[in-house]
């Protein structure tokens, strides 16, 4: 952060000569961006959306459904709660379907609306542009874009970073509450860090990362690090919504009188660079669609204000598509906007079905390690020792038993087995089967997980035995 003071200058008009990135000079030094605020119609709408999202992000971990959090990504316990329903990490089907449906939704959104997520809803943009940046502008006052920023009283910088630190601490706690729950956060806050050094370290590191991101790393998260940005070239097509510059209307750019003196009829762009100085990623939208553009619409508001002043129609920079700006015919119905919704509908249906058909308990076979696959008893029967995993998906403890379907005997000293709510327990059993039932050294056996007389789940497994001619 120390470099910020020394390197900060007014933004040069447009990208510097020989730059490699919008945030890096040709000599490799950081080009600090201090985008000018351009209030306008779109900014006002984004402001409302951003504060609604910040409120949602902060308050959601506090919302309870039937005593459980609305969402909880409890990685340490390998439990995930969605809308009050608990899923365990071993429930691979619903979790896989959920991940696939999220990916498809992202593909569809990008194909239709481009980077609307980046500009309107991504936490990086929302917190940077609607919380940290406004505080920076407020604390630095007239020094914010001054070439003599280094002359700014030091107390302003100290106060700014102090506020950033408090906000980062709050954000870190909010972020963690999605993973550990608000009850734990409150508990940790009330205790000495010495009583819970690991969580304290996690909060400490997360606060540091938030501070580093919003005070130092900033737009580079979007332009260098974010994987979603890297995939834009394949997620978008020429009909996807983008923020673009109407070059047909805007060029040739420049002062109309000066161009007229050269016998050139000027376009609508007066080359004021307001769209550049307001851009939070430091690019010039007039150079065409760029990976760095997060579709934040600040250049639209900036340019509309200029168009109002020079008496030209708004929309020189506007929402459109690459086809629109190139004057090509519109293709609303493209293969991807038909295929993605169909796939998404199919996956969501499967997800709903898999969630609705979940039982209240699950029985799974695990192979016992370090055991002989089978043993022939003196009686001639075949004995297999296997491990079971029993998951209680209810919120209360339950007592389970195991029952064999078909011929054979179970030796199960751990049963009946009490399993606490939302917990999985391993248990070993010995399965003794008549030798005659084996074919090609295998026999399929089905077992039932029961509570009283209720069958809660069944599981089938091939047991090993001797090969008979
Ligand atoms: S080019 Fe315009 S829409 Fe894109 S990031 Fe810059 S200001 Fe935002
Ligand atoms: S704000 Fe509009 S008029 Fe000014 S340089 Fe950008 S495109 Fe041209």
How are the secondary structure elements laid out?
Layout: H1 2-7, H2 41-59, E1 64-65, E2 68-69, E3 71-74, E4 79-82, E5 85-88, H3 92-113, H4 116-121, H5 123-140, H6 154-180, H7 182-190, H8 197-217, H9 220-225, H10 227-230, H11 232-235, E6 241-245, H12 247-250, H13 256-261, H14 274-277, H15 298-310, E7 317-321, H16 322-326, H17 335-356, E8 361-367, E9 375-376, E10 382-392, E11 398-405, E12 409-411, E13 417-419, E14 423-433, E15 442-451, E16 454-464
Antiparallel strand pairs: 1-2, 3-4, 4-5, 6-7, 8-10, 9-10, 10-14, 11-13, 11-15, 12-14, 15-16
Helix pairs in contact: 2-5, 3-17, 5-6, 6-7, 6-8
Q: Can you describe this structure?
A:
There is one protein chain. With 469 residues, this protein is an alpha+beta fold. It folds into three domains: 2-233, no CATH class; 240-326, no CATH class; 361-464, Immunoglobulin-like (Sandwich). Helices cover 42% and strands 20% of the residues. The chain contains 17 helices and 16 strands. It has helices at 2-7, 41-59, 92-113, 116-121, 123-140, 154-180, 182-190, 197-217, 220-225, 227-230, 232-235, 247-250, 256-261, 274-277, 298-310, 322-326, 335-356, and strands spanning 64-65, 68-69, 71-74, 79-82, 85-88, 241-245, 317-321, 361-367, 375-376, 382-392, 398-405, 409-411, 417-419, 423-433, 442-451, 454-464. The strands form five sheets. Strands 8, 9, 10, 12 and 14 form a five-stranded antiparallel β-sheet that branches. Strand 4 and strand 5 (85-88) form a beta hairpin. The longest helix has 27 residues, at 154-180. The model is unreliable at 1-15 (pLDDT under 50). The site of one iron/sulfur cluster has 14 residues, from helix 15. One iron/sulfur cluster (SF4) binds at residues 245, 250, 253, 269-275, 286, 302-303, 306, 316-317.
């Amino acid at each position: 952060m120390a470099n910020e003071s020394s390197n900060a200058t007014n933004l040069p008009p447009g990208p510097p000569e020989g730059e490699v990135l919008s945030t890096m000079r040709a000599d490799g030094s950081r080009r600090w961006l201090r985008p000018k605020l351009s209030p306008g119609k779109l900014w006002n709408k984004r402001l409302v959306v951003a504060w609604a999202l910040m409120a949602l992000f902060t308050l959601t971990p506090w919302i309870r459904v039937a005593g459980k959090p609305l969402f909880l990504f409890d990685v340490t316990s390998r439990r995930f709660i969605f809308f009050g329903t608990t899923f365990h990490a071993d429930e691979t089907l619903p979790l896989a379907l959920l991940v696939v449906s999220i990916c498809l939704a992202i593909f569809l959104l990008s194909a239709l609306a481009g980077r609307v997520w980046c500009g309107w809803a991504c936490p990086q943009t929302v917190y940077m542009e609607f919380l940290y940046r406004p505080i920076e502008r407020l604390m630095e006052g007239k020094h914010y874009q001054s070439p003599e920023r280094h002359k700014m009283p030091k107390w302003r910088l100290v106060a700014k970073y102090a506020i950033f630190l408090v906000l980062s601490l709050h954000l870190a706690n909010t972020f963690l509450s999605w993973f550990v729950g608000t009850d734990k956060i409150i508990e940790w806050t009330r205790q000495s860090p010495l009583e819970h050094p690991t969580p304290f370290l996690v909060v400490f590191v997360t606060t540091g990362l938030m501070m580093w991101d919003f005070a130092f790393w900033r737009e580079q998260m979007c332009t260098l690090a974010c994987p979603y940005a890297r995939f834009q070239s394949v997620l978008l097509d020429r009909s996807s919504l983008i923020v673009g510059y109407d070059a047909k209307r805007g060029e040739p750019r420049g002062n109309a009188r000066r161009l007229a003196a050269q016998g050139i009829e000027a376009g609508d762009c007066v080359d004021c660079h307001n769209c550049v100085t307001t851009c939070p990623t430091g690019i010039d939208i007039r150079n065409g669609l760029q990976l760095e553009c997060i579709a934040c619409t600040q250049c639209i508001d900036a340019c509309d204000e200029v168009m109002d002043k020079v008496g030209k129609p708004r929309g020189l920079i506007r929402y459109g598509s690459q086809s629109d700006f190139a004057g090509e015919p519109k293709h609303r119905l493209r293969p991807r906007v038909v295929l993605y919704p169909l796939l998404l509908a199919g996956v969501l249906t499967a997800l709903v079905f898999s969630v609705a058909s979940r039982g209240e308990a699950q029985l799974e076979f695990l192979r016992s390690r370090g055991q002989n696959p089978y043993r022939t008893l003196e009686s001639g029967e075949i004995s297999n020792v296997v491990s079971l995993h029993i998951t209680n998906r209810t919120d209360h403890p339950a007592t389970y038993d195991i029952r064999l379907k078909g011929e054979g005997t179970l030796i199960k000293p751990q049963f009946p087995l009490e399993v606490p709510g939302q917990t999985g327990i391993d248990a070993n059993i010995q399965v003794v089967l008549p030798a005659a039932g084996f074919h090609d050294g295998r026999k399929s056996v089905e077992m039932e997980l029961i509570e009283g007389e209720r069958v809660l789940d069944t599981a089938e497994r091939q047991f090993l035995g001797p090969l008979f001619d």
